[in-house]
Amino acid sequence: QVQLVESGGGLVQPGGSLRLSCATSGGISSINTMGWFRQGPGNGRELAAIIVGSSGTNYADSVKGRFTISRDNAKNTVYLQMNSLKPEDTAVYYCYALHLGTPYWGQGTQVTVSS
Asked: What pLDDT is stored for residue 49 in this prediction?
């Protein structure tokens, strides 16, 4: 069983930055794939960023060049650094882990980009 707890969401002005954190209940070194999904108002859940292994990353086109996903196995934490935020980035952001073929989700953290 993997438990994921997100933090770091909040209200930020357009052009601002936030860093989301996802803490896991156990060691993440054995979890090959972790990522961040998001669900905006009236939209379905979509992939924002994913990290496979220690450094293999992939991003949605809408966030490329602005978001960076990283992981710190020693701290059992995955991060999403979000820069140059836009109003369309407003969403609930969910941490995701794929472990032994089973997907796990966090409870979500709200990010609101507004002036």
From this structure: 98
Other CB atoms closer than 10 Å to residue 7's CB: what's the count?
14
d(Cα 48, Cα 66) in Å, to the nearest integer? 11
| Beta-carbon contacts of residue 102 (< 8 Å; ≥ 6 apart) | 2
**Tens digits of per-residue pLDDT, 39-97?**
999 999 999 999 998 889 999 999 999 999 999 988 889 999 999 999 999 999 999 99
Lookup: tokens for 35: 């990522």
HEC secondary structure over the chain:
CCCEEEECCEEECCCCCEEEEEEECCCCCCCCEEEEEEECCCCCCEEEEEEECCCEEEECCCCCCCEEEEEEHHHCEEEEEECCCCHHHCEEEEEEEEECCEEEECCCEEEEECC
